[in-house]
Structures
1.
Amino acid sequence: MAEAIKQTVQWFPGHMAKTRRLIGENMKKVDGVVILLDARIPVSSRNPELDELTRGKRRLFILNKADLADPVVTDRWLAALRSNGDNAMSMDCRSGRWQNDFRQEAKRMLAPVIRRNEERGMPGKTVRLMVLGIPNTGKSTFINGLCAKAKAKTEDRAGVTRDTHWYNTGDGVELLDTPGVLWPKFEDPEVGDKLAFTGGVKDQVLDVETLAVRFLDAIAREHPDRLTARYGVTDFESMMPWELLEAIGAKRGMKIRGGDVDTLRCANMLLDEYRAGKLGRISLEMPEKSI
């Protein structure tokens, strides 16, 4: 187990290199970009390569999955992004209660473009936005929520969208959907961990038990009360993370033949419950420690 804990998360499918080229080629066709981040990990879910690719474009950062993050921390993140000169808002794309807020925010961001079009005798000209983000940040759900007839492919796992597609929102805005793009190497191993915790990296490329142990190590330090409330574990000082995983499995009755704990089953359950918000609204990154 000790050796497994040293595993580094890396995942860069070949189609992502192609996506980077497509983003660069299509950037001149759009008036601005929408970048979706995971509200729980705004730093780790922000591909640093997108900063260079979107240079000079109007940008709107969306902290998606805000229903799974600490709302106080999310508000601090919004303030930090805006202080850097970018537009920012938070939402839960699955709720269906955010479309008007987005349209108003996008209209404010694109006001100079709309005004320029009017001055050139092209009132009502369609404006175009590129939708960017790493895998599993909710880009397809976001597009489907804005476009009644658009059906961008959605699934609760990383790496579903593979090509670029245009969608018309019906109110003078076109959206260019792109596949999620990670970057070739995570220099900080904690970035890879956080992406894996939240589902931004496919579980199939990882040892799930190792990932669960690393997750427990992080949560037991920052939010032990959540583990106590959900699983009834309390003796954090005397247990190593892998022992904590076994204790949780035992309390849930996850036993295999011989009476041993089924740690693989417990690991999958633990990660699924965190991603579904059953441990509460937990932010894993704070702006004061990241900017």
Note: The CA atoms of residues 49 and 183 lie 7 Å apart.
2.
Amino acid sequence: MIPARYDASRFPGKLMKDLGGKTVIRRTYDATVATHLFDDVIVVTDSPIIYKEIADVGGKVMMSKKTHDCGSDRIAEAVKDLDIDVVINVQGDEPFADKVSLSKLIEVFKADTKKEVDLASLMVQITDEKEINNPNTVKVIVDQNNFALYFSRSPIPYPRDTQAGVIYHKHKGVYAFRKQAILDFYTLPMLPLEASEKIECIRYLEYGKRIKMVETDVVGVEIDTPEDLERAKELWK
């Protein structure tokens, strides 16, 4: 599932911006389909403009029946009546979705025979101090088994001891959910930590869900700002 909201708060209309001759949402959709990993790839949107963009090229697309605050809510509505076990959420502003990283997420659930993992997500190591301190970059810290401890827009952990050898990880907006986990998310109210940080995956942690983080070295660009779009254009070249 690719949740695709037109009126993004930081960069309205970003999914319809041009990236190498195609719109950002079209690039994301095409890249996800090209992995050949999924039974179905469906864009879920609240926008007639985005709906037409995907439908006109023969892609699969659904209109949200309700207005949602986040992509997980939009996906939960879409999968409620579908016969599925696991759903992957590729954000609409992730045009560099890659097969290797998505395969790693799928393998988490194949290996989880006891069904102890509620969802899995991607992280990538970052070293640039500007990016570590950028509030548009969501950071994640994990335990020894790579289960998420917390996500933040602040640099976590705080580098009080700069010689401690801490590795910083950026959270990439790609998730894999068990169906029940995302349905639970849809019905559970937002709590203060999520409301403060504006990071939806914090809700899972606040309610005791287990998030397995998977490291990838594919950086790409998540398009949150006009500057990100310019970086994506350079990378696309």
Note: The two ends are 27 Å apart (CA to CA).
